[in-house]
């Protein structure tokens, strides 16, 4: 049984833990660096990326987490988590720490006021034919991807909203509140493929 850590400093980590429980995986709320030793994969949830970044420093998690990801633990960032995993963000506040684990550039709060939050049906070929109904909540968009980055999903206008680079995943939206477990299953398969 894979043990999946969910960074639980701020944001909607509870929804991820519920989703994992539903799938029979063991979810673990992560607040201490030593807890990183007990897990096979980690999810960085949505919330407020500046706040989560500050708390990662305060809880001494930034460097250990960076190192753990460098060592190859599968990681998935959703929304604010995607921002934290990125190499570069256009409008980071001063001092915003980034894990710099995905070779992408993101734009925060990218969807403007009237579309700040919206729901949509995404085509995600990796998840099969049925569209993935999901929620964008003041999400970022992916502006630029490096050569090793695979695009998993775009909006109708071509905007990149889900990426994968090796065992690292990023989604601009919130699959944990959709009721559709396929994205979590997809991540669990990545975790299983490296833990065996
Ligand atoms: N707007 C938030 C940020 O910039 C992200 C929103 C979210 O995670 N739902 O960090």
From TrEMBL:
Pathway: Cofactor biosynthesis; pyridoxal 5'-phosphate biosynthesis. Its EC number is 4.3.3.6, 3.5.1.2. It catalyses: aldehydo-D-ribose 5-phosphate + D-glyceraldehyde 3-phosphate + L-glutamine = pyridoxal 5'-phosphate + L-glutamate + phosphate + 3 H2O + H(+); L-glutamine + H2O = L-glutamate + NH4(+). One of its GO terms (cellular component) is cytosol. L-glutamine binds at residues 47-49, 108, 137-138. Keywords: Glutamine amidotransferase, Hydrolase, Lyase, Pyridoxal phosphate, Transferase. The active site is at residues 79, 174, 176. SUPFAM superfamilies: Class I glutamine amidotransferase-like (SSF52317). InterPro entries: Class_I_gatase-like (IPR029062), PdxT/SNO (IPR002161), PdxT/SNO_CS (IPR021196). GO terms for biological process: L-glutamine catabolic process; pyridoxal phosphate biosynthetic process; pyridoxine metabolic process. GO terms for molecular function: glutaminase activity; pyridoxal 5'-phosphate synthase (glutamine hydrolysing) activity; transferase activity. CDD domains: GATase1_PB (cd01749). Belongs to the glutaminase PdxT/SNO family. Catalyzes the hydrolysis of glutamine to glutamate and ammonia as part of the biosynthesis of pyridoxal 5'-phosphate. The resulting ammonia molecule is channeled to the active site of PdxS. In the presence of PdxS, forms a dodecamer of heterodimers. Only shows activity in the heterodimer. This is Pyridoxal 5'-phosphate synthase subunit PdxT.
């Amino acid at each position: 049984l894979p043990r999946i850590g969910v960074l639980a400093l701020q944001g909607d980590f509870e929804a991820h833990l519920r989703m994992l429980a539903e799938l029979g995986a063991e979810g673990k709320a992560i607040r201490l660096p030593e807890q990183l030793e007990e897990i096979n994969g980690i999810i960085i949830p949505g919330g407020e990326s500046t706040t989560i970044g500050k708390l990662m420093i305060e809880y001494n998690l930034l460097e250990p987490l960076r190192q753990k990801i460098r060592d190859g633990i599968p990681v998935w960032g959703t929304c604010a988590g995607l921002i934290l995993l990125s190499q570069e963000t256009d409008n980071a506040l001063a001092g915003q720490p980034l894990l710099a684990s995905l070779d992408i550039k993101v734009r925060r709060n990218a969807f403007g006021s009237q579309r700040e939050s919206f729901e949509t049906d995404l085509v995600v070929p990796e998840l099969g034919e049925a569209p993935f109904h999901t929620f964008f909540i003041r999400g970022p968009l992916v502006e630029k991807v490096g050569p090793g980055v695979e695009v998993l999903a775009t909006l109708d206008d071509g905007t990149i909203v889900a990426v994968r680079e090796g065992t690292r995943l990023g989604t601009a939206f919130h699959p944990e509140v959709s009721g559709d477990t396929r994205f979590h299953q997809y991540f669990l398969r990545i975790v299983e493929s490296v833990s065996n």
